[in-house]
Design goal:
This protein has 185 residues and is mainly alpha-helical. It has helices at residues 3-20, 24-33, 43-54, 56-66, 77-92, 98-112, 117-133, 135-146. The chain has one domain: NusB-like (N-utilizing Substance Protein B Homolog, Chain A), CATH 1.10.940. Involved in transcription antitermination. Required for transcription of ribosomal RNA (rRNA) genes. Binds specifically to the boxA antiterminator sequence of the ribosomal RNA (rrn) operons.
Amino acid sequence: MARSTARKRALNTLYEADEKSQSFTSLLEERIKEPGAQTPLPEYAIEIVRGVAEHGRDIDATLDEHSTGWKVRRMAVVDRNILRIAVWEILFNEEVPDKVAIDEALSLAKTLSDDDSPAFIHGLLSAVCHAKDHPVAAAENVDDASDSPDADDAPDASGPSDSDERTDQSASADPVSEPSEETAD
């Protein structure tokens, strides 16, 4: 089964657990034991859910660190779980190139989230990749940001909408530019 399909199935599992306030691993075990009307979860979907569960605190801390004005707890449920999958792939799965993780996240966001989400997700994941590739520069930026007033509860124009309920959007949403492949040192 294609990894894109596995990502979608992992997202469904993470989303459902998040909405139910259930642990990711307990719902995953339920889905493995009793898949219901769906086909069994692909191995890569299981790997994603377990990886997100195992590294959840680090993933959410990374997202909080690089998000401007939007903490994970305030993001739309679908957006935060798309981001969790992508950050797990970027930081903890060496088999997936960063660009592929971003592209796959954008694909999910274009079909499952609102019109503003792909740009928000792209910007946030690009910042995560930059910090991964340039840890010294990223640490300096975090220090500079810590000197500014706390913006935990003040959303800015780059954040997602307040609605956690999403309707399916057509895949023909405005195109989002591809991540830059510049390697500025």
